[in-house]
Specification:
Distance between the termini: 28 Å
Oligomer: single chain
Shape: globular
Mean pLDDT: 91
Strand content: under 5%
């Protein structure tokens, strides 16, 4: 394809495809934490339940045409929907730019992982939850891809997953022993193990350090603004996702 079509045309196609995936990610972000099927029923307005017709479900475009309101009940539609679609499209373009338009195991793994991070970042932000139904398949994805030539080799993936799971487990047990509370959630354990399987040992440690710094900075800002305290719970999975995307 790269030898036939100009790069900007390829990028446009890739962005459009990624935006369509982003529309699906919006469904995942909304329904998975609630334990609802991501297949049935079809897309509907969360406020009035009216089914969303296909022409009102075109990524980003429909939001603009509808002026950010449901066609049926006129309830405002959050700007986050088109932003997720745009972010998903941009992640697809970045993956193609980094790994090329040819389909490779590493490129597919990187793209799927970036979409997972996008979804988990917002799910954890909304619900302080990292669902097993997403983190565990991601762990398996990383291990399987590493065996077939993914972002890292199988040995590094296994070590990375072990380190990624062991460190937050240690934090949980240490906090439980010293303070009688959990310093992290078990979802963080599974997500970090998945990150380790995808990025390997060094990548896992890098993500953990950067995520901790990001979390600390946000915590300091919240305290300075009078909107939090040292005990305010923050969605660490959101920071892990951001750090993984920055890696």
């Amino acid at each position: 394809m790269a030898g036939i079509l100009p790069d900007n045309v390829i990028a446009a196609f890739v962005f459009a495809f990624g935006a369509v995936v982003g529309s699906f990610l919006n469904v995942v972000i909304h329904r998975v934490p609630l334990g609802r099927s991501i297949v049935r029923p079809g897309s509907a307005c969360p406020a009035c339940g009216a089914a969303i017709r296909w022409y009102d479900n075109v990524p980003m475009v429909s939001w603009l045409i509808l002026r950010a309101r449901c066609r049926a009940c006129k309830t405002p539609i959050s700007v986050r929907y088109p932003l997720v679609e745009a972010a998903s499209g941009l992640l697809a373009v970045l993956a193609v730019r980094q790994f090329g338009p040819e389909v490779t195991v590493a490129g597919v793994e990187a793209l799927l992982f970036s979409w997972v991070c996008l979804a988990l970042a917002l799910i954890d932000y909304d619900h302080q939850l990292l669902p097993d139904v997403i983190t565990l398949p991601t762990l398996l994805l990383g291990l399987a891809a590493s065996y077939f030539g993914g972002l890292t080799d199988i040995i590094d993936a296994v070590i990375g997953a072990t380190i990624g799971g062991a460190i937050p487990m240690g934090v949980i047990f240490a906090y439980k022993l010293l303070r009688g509370e959990e310093g992290m959630g078990w979802g963080d354990v599974k997500f970090l193990a998945a990150i380790g399987a995808v990025l390997g040992a060094a990548g896992t440690l890098w993500v953990l350090v950067v995520a901790s710094v990001l979390g600390a900075l946000v915590g300091i800002v919240l305290i300075a603004a009078g909107r939090g305290s040292a005990k305010t719970a923050l969605p660490f999975g959101t920071f892990l996702s951001a750090a993984a995307l920055l890696h």
